[in-house]
């Protein structure tokens, strides 16, 4: 299976994707809230990509991905994979920025800190982390679990014994044990550092077990305050461990997902076949309605008349085939004439381009709209080549040409559900477009009614302020910067 075929199986869910070169080496790891949408952004015409991304795409020979439950899980898994695999292009595509590391400094009473500089000075570095937020979360966890210093003082034995260094606010907030004043031994402090090393290395279970053991010991010795401290630490570690477990085990690899999808696909196809066959029988059609189109008119008080055509294939919406129409030849709110115009335009174009005709056409409306749609099809010479029905919304009655009585399908039948779905989808698609055009015309009329505001000025104002509301709320100075003071005053007075 090549990369393009694998993209077809990508779901719209959180996950991590990996690009491999011809040798099978992972060259890039990325995370996504929506896998399919993110990966598709790479496979666009080369001129739409920057130089570095174009170089990456040219090297892609294979794609792997892993599904996770949440966007945060994707972040954690991406970080782990980058640390493990060190992909070449994760560095190249960062515009020369380095990844953050967590550093345990090589010093007395070591500080644990975030850094982007890797210095070979004997300090320990954990990472790199793909996300600075994730690195900070781990540092926050360490700070909540242990009493670590953050000051930059040199705390060698001589400095502590001299008494020159005094405890800071962190000591009084109980976030530091004040080793600077000798209140916390280096041995005790280093025991904390060993625990932090285990935390950063992923050995969380051993830390949880140790906390549990010390909690039980403290409780047995009636040191309940100490037992509570160990319990709180254990709770924090368990929460962190659960997060890591989700990333480690709550994932679905590409091959498993593909197999699941392949198992679902025949079931979905089988279901669609049954739905279409039932619809064919209920309507008395000779052909299976694999390709259905539905038309809807939208106008409010006769303004901005538009129409919509939505397309279903195998009982599933095919949104790439949806079309809007501006009604050109009809004046005012004449739904019948509008329906005839758009049906004529739709199928005259399909015929001219040699495209296939649908097996079923659904007209949103009653007998009037259906009659004019049939006239348009007859004029094109295709009346007998398609099956046409009207769907009247009030009683959900199906009007079949040539039948004296309307067809009333069972409210729970799959056939009526499909017809209502495509009708509602046509209505939604059409009304959204109509609202957008109506808003645009209201903007135009509100501005053009002001003396001195012509098309060019109107366009300047809309580009700058984006809406009439914002124009109305703008100050005189803001308007003047676009139109000049004299016209700005007129606009301010008019709106």
- The CATH topology assignment of the domain at 281-438 is Nucleotidyltransferase, domain 5
Q: Rough shape?
A: elongated
Q: Poorly predicted ranges (pLDDT <50, ≥5 residues)?
A: 245-252
Q: Give a quick account of the main beta sheet: strands, pairing sense, barrel closure.
A: 7 strands, mixed
CATH architecture of the domain at 281-438: 2-Layer Sandwich
Radius of gyration: 34 Å
Class from helix and strand fractions: alpha+beta
Number of strands: 14
Please state the oligomeric state of the protein chains shown: single chain
CATH class identity of the domain at 281-438: Alpha Beta
Q: Specify the helix fraction band.
A: 40-55%
State the helix count: 19
